[in-house]
Amino acid sequence: MYSIGRLGLAVVVLTGCALGPVDEDEATSESNGTEELNVGSVEAAETASWGSATNCKPIPALETLKSPEIVVSLDGLTLHLRDRAGTYDRVFPVGVGAIDGGKSKTPVGKFYTGATTAEVRTAAGATLPVPDLVDRSGHAQGLAGLRGLPFIRLAGPPTAGYALHGPIDGFTAPTGGSLRRGYVSHGCVRMASADILEVYARIRGKSKVPVRIQQEVERDTASAAVDVGARWIGSECKVDTDCNHTGGKCSLGATGVGTCTLPCTRTCPDRAGEVPTFCASTGRCVPQASTTWNDACDRYAGRLKSKTTTRPDKSATAPVCAP
């Protein structure tokens, strides 16, 4: 089994095919990196076929940012990477720590990535042999949990037990799996496979990239929510054009801040990786209320609140997050 020893505030940034010390959020720690941590696990039943989980995914050839910084919003479920010395500015969807005791397991605070960005591979090249993925007890463990994707550990008070890395679902897929944008991890910040590859490529070789994790939605200088480019039902908006999904409409609240919706008569479309939706009695598609996806609507505090509604045709009832 691979594990982390006493790292103090040293930080290691490795690909998922590393043979060195790595961390995984299945055994999160508040110990500032001073305890032995498991690298992670999958269900024993899944060990029959690792699929592509052991294959290193190629790092894209992208220009490294001159002065990168990262902001993670737990309420916005976003990771914002920008270059303070350039024009690069991009927002990615994320999954963060599950809600425990009323708050996400992902800690807020100021962190940084490390100076070490070595990529350690097996002698065979891009694939780890299966024995390196199974611990002595026979349970599936370790680097398969990283899906052959980059693993960017964070350090700095209050903890060094968390990281930015790949998604949860479908770890055997050639892509490395798919993201659930919600409160789904044991504390680490999960990203879609292509997104963690881009973030890694953009900060590769940089020493101590600052990472701020905050509870509240990140906002720009005009107080608009910083969000992903492809908005979806439930996103914050001020005008209809903010809701750039097909048929999107902005339902404004009393404060002038609204929510992206979609007119409906019975059912609503869902988007992979986003909270399931429901056609409310008002004839608008809204997010369903879910502890896992949106902390029972608390993610939308001030905009949406939990209520039970019935479809316009009375065919179904569900708890939703409604304006």
List the helices and strands and how they pair.
Layout: E1 3-4, E2 13-14, E3 37-38, E4 68-73, E5 78-83, E6 89-97, E7 99-100, E8 103-104, E9 109-112, E10 151-154, E11 162-165, E12 183-185, E13 189-191, H1 193-203, E14 210-214, E15 236-237, E16 249-252, E17 258-261, E18 277-279, E19 285-287, H2 291-294, E20 305-310, E21 317-322
Parallel strand pairs: 4-14, 6-12, 11-13
Antiparallel strand pairs: 1-3, 2-10, 4-5, 5-6, 6-13, 7-8, 9-14, 10-11, 15-17, 16-17, 18-19, 20-21
Short descriptors:
single chain; 323 residues; mainly beta; L,D-transpeptidase catalytic domain-like; 2 domains; disordered N terminus
Q: Care to count the β-strands?
A: 21
- The fold-level CATH name of the largest domain is L,D-transpeptidase catalytic domain-like
CATH homologous superfamily designation of the largest domain: L,D-transpeptidase catalytic domain-like
Q: Give the domain tally.
A: 2
Oligomer: single chain
Q: Helical element count? A: 2
Rounded radius of gyration (Å) = 20 Å
Gross morphology is globular
Low confidence ranges:
1-47, 115-144
Give helix and strand order, one letter per element, not per position. Answer: EEEEEEEEEEEEEHEEEEEEHEE
The CATH class designation of the largest domain is Mainly Beta
Strand proportion:
25-35%
